[in-house]
Amino acid sequence: MDQTDCNIIQILEVNSRITMKELGEKVHLTGQAVAARVTKLEEEGIVEGYTIQLNEGKRGYPVHAFLTIYMEKISHSPYLDFVRENEQIIRNHYKISGEGCYLMECRFKSNEHLNSFLESLNRYANYKLTLVIAN
Predict the structure, then answer these.
(1) pLDDT of residue 53
(2) In angstroms, what CA-CA distances link 72 with 57, 111, 123, 125?
(3) What is the residue-wise DSSP string for the chain?
(4) Which of 11, 52, 61, 125 is the S-S candidate for 107 at Cβ 3.0 to 4.6 Å?
(5) d(Cα 131, Cα 63) in Å, to the nearest integer?
(6) Domains plus CATH for the chain?
(7) Which stretches of the chain drop beneath a pLDDT of 70?
(8) According to the model, what pLDDT value does residue 135 have?
(9) What pLDDT score was predicted for residue 62?
């Protein structure tokens, strides 16, 4: 991977919908040459996919929360089943080291929705709640 590949990745991180022609102009290559480089980056697993950014507030999920999850039981299976059942709320879920066992990022329609989720979660684990005030 050379500096041109790094520049391509940097541009794609900002705008993955850019045309190959525009991308080529930004890195001083033809559209065909830059497309070949992007394909190579994909084949090597450096570029794994493309995504979109959503305005969660406008989608109806204005409450943004992070939960540090603390497990008391040895078996985490019931908790992990709960996580799978709530994929529409849970945006990211990580097994972590340090404080807590898992870190969960969630979006909720309202504080009432959050409270209901926390009551359900409490059947499987303890948690520490952190609310996002602004991005």
Answers:
(1) 87
(2) 34, 26, 11, 7
(3) --HHHHHHHHHHHH-TT--HHHHHHHHTS-HHHHHHHHHHHHHTTSS--------TTTTT--EEEEEEEE--SS--HHHHHHHHHTTTTEEEEEE-SSSSSEEEEEEESSHHHHHHHHHHHTTT-EEEEEE----
(4) 61
(5) 8
(6) 3-43 (1.10.10.10), 63-131 (3.30.70.920)
(7) none
(8) 81
(9) 96
